[in-house]
């Protein structure tokens, strides 16, 4: 007799590259982290707002994406009206659209925060995903450097509230006006040089990774990496490269020295001098509020996006960790942002000052996990009511309903297996306890409650099956009418 051929699966169970699944433990840890961040933002007076994951492609800005290639960098598609739509690339451009759309109804300055997934249609790699979460806070409607300073101070407070010790992080601040002044001085001003300016910004942004020599190559003809891949450079001449590198090397022994060095770099350049003045104002505020040691002026911070128009900042973690290969590494930047006074203007035709920053949730969560500050343990599951007799399902459901009415997570086993498999199921659910009522318990008007946590601890000292059956660790009978009370007492003892 021939065997019945196996049916081929309709699809492979697999994830696209650059995307990840998250289990209950990771979700619980991240949610706790998000709640802490949210409380800090609200302490500073920011309020929640939510925008959809999909926007009109042109709302994302001239820099994202290239209108001739609407899928360059973002995930885009056309709807049935042949309009181009895109998954949001960040949370800032959607906020700019929201503020412009509701401008007259919003208080100004408008202080908001939002968390959500963003999407990048880019090549994924180690630690580089195509879907990841950000948590942003922005102030729209204030041109004062005090608004930028406050964001930086809030970033510092957030790190400490999450358990990152002072000295294990630093908030670095710079001003794009200073760099813009330098770029104007070397002939890269004007709209026609926007592409080359962006290349310069991205080159400087690699300073920590490649060092001055690597950045020098990226500012010039280009750089070939270890794999042989070549990155085209900005094409600057030697004199222009020297001036840009002098800007990045202007950091002094303290804030005052750095500001003095920057003044020398941009002397005679009005836009650059304006940026240095804003940095000096911010430094005064940091010192007055007691943040001088936690927030530093650092010319190497430029941020890679073209839309920044003033102060820019990053939160960098400074403590070393050992990775899976035994190498000592640093997490580096986990948050960043800056002033973007021109973004809302795209929708309104008038400049609207704005500043804000974004926390990379996944990267920060990994850092907290390495410090033991992220509760990544599997969360406690529900109390499970076992189904011993199929004709008594209504009674088991009544038990579950009573527990839920008392605010206790509970579920009735809905499978078709016997008691041994049901106990295994409860263990996999990380249930704190199971409720058992067979015919004997029912006749006695009782239920049997098995404390799975205490039972697991007791099992570590019991090696003999006969001893186990005799001891029945952490198992006790309770009157049916006392079910809720006994379960509440058991959970309270955790």
UniProtKB/TrEMBL annotation:
It catalyses: tRNA(His) + L-histidine + ATP = L-histidyl-tRNA(His) + AMP + diphosphate + H(+). Its main location: cytoplasm. Keywords: Aminoacyl-tRNA synthetase, ATP-binding, Cytoplasm, Ligase, Nucleotide-binding, Protein biosynthesis. Its EC number is 6.1.1.21. The keyword Protease does not apply. GO terms for biological process: histidyl-tRNA aminoacylation. Homodimer. Belongs to the class-II aminoacyl-tRNA synthetase family. This is Histidine--tRNA ligase. It comes from Phreatobacter oligotrophus. The lineage of its organism: Bacteria, Pseudomonadati, Pseudomonadota, Alphaproteobacteria, Hyphomicrobiales.
